[in-house]
Amino acid sequence: MLDVFFSVKHLLKFEQIRIDNVIFALHYRVTRVVLVALSLLVSCKQYFGDPIDCIVDQINSRTIDMFCWIQSTYTVPALAGALVGEEVAHPGVANYIAPLVDDESHQYVIRHHKYYQWVALVLFLQSCMFYVPRYIWKCWEGGRVKGLVNVLNLPALRPDLKQERVRVIVDYFGRNFHRHNLYAYQFFLCELLNFTNVVGQFYLTESFLGHGFNGYGPRVVQYAQQDPARGLDPKDEVFPKVAKCTFHKFGSSGTIMRHDAICVLPLNILNEKIYVSLWFCYVSRLLALALISGCGLLYRMATFAHKIRPLILRARSRLASKDKVEAIVQRCRIGDWFILSLLAKNMDPFMFRDFINDLSPKLLKKEHYS
């Protein structure tokens, strides 16, 4: 089973040049890897056997298995809490037409379970959706930071090569000063997409599971703390291990014959635990992101204040002169400050100090002649 997780470990490899932050990386790296691994795990029959096994007389077992896998199974929610062994054979497994006291036919509401053949695909698609903001930001970013940093993230360089690369960055800022606002706003938009995606994933899962995902985690925990003989197991309600399937075929005289099959769904043992984990993952992320987004909103608002930006940049470039950092940042717009912050994050501290020392007089000179 470890082979499944080792096969996606390359997705966790960190890049040398970082163009985002830790919160951004949690979305496209950690969450995406977890969802891809779960998708592969659900697809591995060698670990969990056949996804469905159905029992019915007079029909080939392989045929009924394929039919019920394709057409879906069903349970009767009204009988999910019935007494097993006396009222029903398994939780929610019964004929959906049952007689009442007055002998009139009464039809129970049945619940079809069609999701199980889509679980692996949906988990994979969800992992792709967590990568979409990252992909958009990489397209918009266009390798700008990597091109500027080049080899300046290395601690040891030849003096002539260091001076040449620092001069290139200084010249770039001299030509493109005050032209980076769109660059910064594009990143802020991708951060907003990350938050929107997490909220949307919760409601997508809720719809996918037939509106059985909302409150699923607490109900499972509550059931685990009480007597198993009492109450309905919420895992069986959403992910039944035993369900029914109806197959029709023609008899020898041409009449339509109905065959009720009982199907065992061993894969739901894994699915129920996956979605319990995902419930707590999504909810904890929503709560955490609500707090982080509130703090992030204050942080973003603070970065628009000229007095705050030097403090943030100085924290990332401790070796650079305090006066020169403040002199540069006071003349920066939000986009210039943002790309300077990315450079400070990726460049060697000594290289960034030299870059600030060379950039400061150039900007002062440009301001003097403008």
Reading side by side through the largest sheet, how are the strands ordered?
Answer: 1-7-6
What does the main sheet amount to? 3 strands, antiparallel
Distance between the termini: 66 Å
**Helical content (DSSP H or I, runs of 4+):** 55-70%
Low-confidence stretches: 98-105
The radius of gyration over CA amounts to 30 Å
Series of secondary-structure elements, N-terminal to C-terminal: HHHEHEEEEHHHHHHEEHHHHH
Measured by DSSP, the beta-strand proportion falls in 5-15%
The whole-number mean of residue pLDDT values reads 79
Overall shape: it is elongated
In the residues, how many domains can be counted? 1
What attributes does this structure have?
three-stranded antiparallel sheet
Show the helix and strand layout.
Layout lengths: L1 H5 L15 H22 L1 H4 L4 E3 L5 H11 L1 E3 L21 E3 L5 E3 L3 E3 L5 H23 L2 H6 L9 H18 L4 H28 L7 H9 L9 H5 L3 E9 L5 E9 L3 H36 L5 H8 L5 H9 L3 H13 L2 H21 L1
Helix pairs in contact: 2-5, 5-8, 7-15, 8-11, 8-14, 12-13, 12-14, 13-15
Question: How would you summarize what this structure contains?
Answer:
This protein is 59% helix and 9% strand.
Write a structural description.
- The protein has helices spanning 2-6, 22-43, 45-48, 61-71, 119-141, 144-149, 159-176, 181-208, 216-224, 234-238, 268-303, 309-316, 322-330, 334-346, 349-369, and strands at 53-55, 73-75, 97-99, 105-107, 111-113, 242-250, 256-264.
- The protein is mainly alpha-helical and 370 residues long.
- The chain is elongated, with a radius of gyration of 30 Å.
- Helix 7 (159-176) packs across helix 15 (349-369), helix 8 packs across helix 14 and helix 13 (322-330) crosses helix 15.
- It has one domain (2-50, 115-227, 270-369).
- The N and C termini lie far apart (66 Å).
- It is built from 15 helices and seven strands.
- Strand 6 (242-250) and strand 7 form a beta hairpin.
